[in-house]
Amino acid sequence: MKVLVNGEIINRSEAKVDIEDRGYQFGDGVYEVVNIYEGIPFTLKEHIARLYRSANEIGIQLSEQPEQLCNRLMELIEANNMTNGGLYLQISRGVSNRSHHYDQTLTPQLVAYPLPFKNVSDAQAKGVEAITAEDLRWLRCDIKSLNLLYNIMVKQKASEAGAFESILIRDGIVTEGSSSNIFIIKDGILLTHPANNLILNGITRTKLLEIMDANGWDYKIQPFQKEDLMKADEVFLTSTTSEVMPIIKVDGVTFSQAKPGPFTRKFQTAFREVVKAETKTTTEKA
Ligand code: PDD
């Protein structure tokens, strides 16, 4: 496997991380996951824009322009002969003697490499189960930070319960999943949490809302309660790796006869079509 380390594409076995890297010691950095379809990264520009935003929010300045980084990532995809899978990218603040405060002159460390293809088509067809958990994270969930400790804890809880995702509840309100955004449908209207400091503004979420706009489908961006979730007609999540994923059971309660509901299906199909169209258009342009 070839990996990108600070602008250079090298073999995985040659890639080294310093033990005093602040990403390693403090989780002091940001990351992204991009999906690759037939060698084409989907919504790459949007992911890179969010990466720069996250970096900026924690005071990491990158010397490379977003376009340059996109070009390097395209080279990385080519160097690995990637067809389907993902790209993982992370930026840490840099390497220094361990102290909480940092020197503004540190050189950010950027690492990117391929992630194996995850087949979610069966889960997408049948739907998945979720559990709920209290949202005990910090109040800057809009930053895609390397600090994922609580997300990991609740994902593990879901996994041990035989579920796919933990849906997080803060003060009675459904915020998002441990690694996804959450949507409910009630009486034909889609609801999802506003993109504020309490959630990560998912690229998949944004794309789906654009698709809703383009089709003139109604939705409301507004917080909803756990009891609205439990009384919803349909529930689904979105994320880069899951796309539109139906949720058919939450805490043992089933939705739409334990099958993906008609609205979820419609959105799932519309999303797939956009993925196909956008990855195809880019191929033709290239
Ligand atoms: N997770 N919310 C959280 C907390 C996430 O970690 C993610 C993505 C999302 C969905 O964002 P997007 O649609 O841009 O993937 C929402 C990634 C995939 C991960 O950590 O692996």
TrEMBL record:
EC number in record: 2.6.1.21
Keywords per UniProt: Aminotransferase, Pyridoxal phosphate, Transferase
Catalytic activity, reaction form: D-alanine + 2-oxoglutarate = D-glutamate + pyruvate
Cofactor field: pyridoxal 5'-phosphate
GO BP term, pick one: amino acid biosynthetic process
Top-level EC class: transferase
InterPro entries in alphabetical order: Aminotrans_IV, Aminotrans_IV_CS, Aminotransferase-like, BCAT-like_C, BCAT-like_N, Class-IV_PLP-Dep_Aminotrnsfr, D_amino_transT
Gene Ontology, cellular component aspect: cytosol
Single annotated GO MF: pyridoxal phosphate binding
Pfam family for this entry, one: Aminotran_4
Annotated family: Belongs to the class-IV pyridoxal-phosphate-dependent aminotransferase family.
Purpose: Acts on the D-isomers of alanine, leucine, aspartate, glutamate, aminobutyrate, norvaline and asparagine. The enzyme transfers an amino group from a substrate D-amino acid to the pyridoxal phosphate cofactor to form pyridoxamine and an alpha-keto acid in the first half-reaction.
Complex and partners: Homodimer.
Name of the molecule in the record: D-alanine aminotransferase
